[in-house]
Amino acid sequence: MEQIRVGVIGLGAIGERLIQGFNANKYTTVQAVVDTDKERASKMAEKLGGINWYNHHMKMLAEEELDLVYVAVPPKYHHAVTMDVIEKGVHVLCEKPLANSVEEAKEMFEKAEQAGIIHAMNFPLNYSSPANTFDQMIKEGYIGQLRKLELSMNFPNWPRLWQQNDWVAGREQGGFVLEVGVHFIQLTQRIFGSITHINSRLELPKDTTKCETGVIASLALANRTPFLINGMSQIAGTERIAYTAYGTEGSLSLIDWGTLKGGKLGEEIHSIENEKEDTSTLIDNLVAAIAGKESHLYTFKDGYEAQIILEKLRDK
Ligand SMILES: NC(=O)c1ccc[n+]([C@@H]2O[C@H](COP(=O)([O-])OP(=O)(O)OC[C@H]3O[C@@H](n4cnc5c(N)ncnc54)[C@H](O)[C@@H]3O)[C@@H](O)[C@H]2O)c1
């Protein structure tokens, strides 16, 4: 199989993380990188063996022959940058959230479909075996009939210490509802189907440039099963993210992304061994899709559907 030539736009914490993934896959080669920060771009290019680097994505798109472009710039630039990649007709992987508004997300999905390219989103929970075990146990009836879903997010620090940048704590394109909530909204849509928004309230600081410090939201699944979201930042304690499904026969939680806990009615809640093999990675699935083989990708359609709920939760 021929090497898949990858261009990466945006070399922050996350861009760098996926570059490691592309390096680890024997079918993908990072051929060029872009960052508006020239020093960051040149250093990364050097680290990758002296590959080409650019400080504008249009220059890379004009000069490089690429099979796939990965967009890892901050959310408010996803639309502009990704639309240029779509225009060029190159397969595209975009970071979540897909865009910074429903209109942008819709246009990105529609244009990517029209272009006939592969379009994918980086929603890592879909490739995590605990999340997939959660899905499987729900489908096998571990909790019986679902009565309520709950997402609780507690952040002592927002932004988290590993993600200090100039946008993630801003109201325009940051906040934990957008950054973290999106993963569980998409996972809910995947496992349980469509969601409707009933009402929500954000706790917002007086400084209108700063993101929410709290959210309480009431959503519902298609059959009216309630889905509650409850989040707070700048609080005592440790970070904890718990996604719980309560059913007629028991409950099941995915805690801190990778731990499964649950119990049947009458039992204590206990840890549940995750017996699934590690699932294939996002990059394995991109490689398969580009080779025309069967693959499991979450596309701009999934990003767009999640964005509809996200924008209802955000008080823009
Ligand atoms: N999938 C996940 O699990 C996950 C987790 C965290 C963040 N993210 C997403 O990843 C994206 C990047 O997040 P991050 O934490 O790495 O951000 P970051 O701010 O650390 O890095 C972004 C980089 O993009 C560069 N940049 C900004 N505008 C650009 C442009 N127009 N062209 C080229 N480069 C540009 C910046 O100079 C910076 O180096 C965001 O969309 C974020 O929501 C995804």
UniProtKB/TrEMBL annotation:
Ranges annotated as spanning the membrane: none
Residues of the GFO/IDH/MocA-like oxidoreductase domain: 135-252
Domain annotation Gfo/Idh/MocA-like oxidoreductase N-terminal: ranges: 4-121
UniProt keyword terms in alphabetical order: Oxidoreductase
Pfam families assigned: GFO_IDH_MocA, GFO_IDH_MocA_C3
Gene Ontology molecular function: any one: oxidoreductase activity
Name of the molecule in the record: Gfo/Idh/MocA family oxidoreductase
Organism: Bacillus timonensis
